[in-house]
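Problem: given the chain below (235 residues), write out its structure.
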Amino acid sequence: MNRISSNFLIDMAKSPIVLTGHYGSGKSELAVNLAVRLARSAGDTVVMDLDIANPYFRSREMAGVLRARGVKLVSNAYGFDITQDLPAVSPQVKSFLGNVHYKRIVDVGGNSSGARVLNQFSDTLIESEAKILAVVNVYRPETDDAEKIITMIESIETEIGRKVDGILNNANMLRETEPIHVLNGLRILMEVSEKTGIPVVANCAEKEVCKRLPKSCRPSLPIYLYMRPAWLDCC
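Solution.
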């Protein structure tokens, strides 16, 4: 497996981690999970929710969960409670991006249109040596093969004028996910990696699924479904 580091999260979190990818790939779920994990292991952590493209399943919806775990949340300019769907980015974002005291997670909207918001912070992202990670779920129809994934990544790179630094394998079928699903996602993403030179940095899966993954799949990132439990329970 092509890796950045066996301890990729702590190593990469020395700089801001920017999560990009297709709509519904699980960026916000991973943003919340990464932030909680970093706050527990490394201290002060901030999530910057820059998703102004999609009003559903955004990390700002987990404001209470994040605060309870010591994570600071920065989202729109007017406060979540009164204008949660207003497409306005907080001016605090730029100051936090350059604040090395914090572990910084940036959650952006889907596809190149969602990533476009990063352009207003391009200088700060370069100065802070931000890591751009593409989150991919191969069980979404728009990213179910290598060529579609490469096209998505290239469109994001073109939009923001930056190369993607790594890929997170988030292959899942929600609560129906089995290790075989993660392994199939890894197989497809290794093909993407071979064609683009972009490393697959980790496999993300629900914690019980992670326990059943072979050692060859490490590093793995166990996740908890913060974003969708109520929605899943009603279906």
